[in-house]
Design goal:
Length: about 200
């Protein structure tokens, strides 16, 4: 189920470095844009909030439902046939919900984002993913399932904690209309996103 167009770039506060880059694009801005355009191939440069944010829609994400267990997104979307000779498609999509901050304590900015996976049948499955900045580029290191047809409302990163606000279902809800508000908090520990409360 599609929930509006991909909108990357409004759900976080730019660092001072990011703001500076936006005000004075110049050579620095051109370089940042060029690096962003190659997405996960952004290798060897110091990660910034801006370059990481722009790389997310072209990163490679582990996805158990995809062939080979990997979905490399293009413009925030990955599509493949749902099965041999299938007329339906598996679609993995980067939603507009993400937060930026240092998740693994190494001082470099990382991202927590939400992917949706529509396997081409019933259901759309939402996952919280952790993408950490490494020397050779951003890397998807951990996934936590948020559920089938939940409604994600916000993702925030603060002091290494990831908080997700969402609506989930009670026994009265139809799958298309979750009504129960939940706030879940995660921490990235040893490349696992653990729900801590
Ligand atoms: Ca980090």
């Amino acid at each position: 189920m599609e929930r509006g167009p991909l909108k990357v770039g409004f759900a976080f506060s730019l660092s001072e470095e990011g703001r500076e880059g936006m005000r004075h694009p110049g050579l620095h801005g051109v370089l940042a844009l060029a690096l962003a355009l190659v997405g996960c191939a952004d290798r060897g440069s110091k990660p910034t909030a801006v370059t990481l944010m722009k790389a997310l829609p072209s990163c490679e994400y582990r996805c158990a439902m995809a062939t080979g267990g990997v979905a490399r997104l293009t413009d925030g979307v990955y599509v493949e046939p749902a099965g041999p000779d299938s007329s339906t498609q598996l679609t993995v999509r980067l939603t507009e919900f993400f937060g930026l901050g240092d998740l693994n304590g190494d001082g470099d900015v990382d991202a927590a984002a939400v992917l949706s996976t529509d396997p081409g049948g019933s259901g759309t499955f939402y996952d919280l993913v952790a993408v950490v900045s490494e020397r050779d580029g951003p890397r998807h290191v951990a996934t936590a399932s948020l559920g089938d047809r939940v409604l994600v409302e916000a993702v925030r990163v603060a002091n290494g904690w990831v908080t997700v606000d969402l609506l989930t279902h009670d026994s009265e809800d139809s799958m298309s209309a979750p009504s129960v508000p939940l706030k879940q908090t995660y921490r990235l520990i040893d490349d696992e996103l653990l729900m801590v409360r």
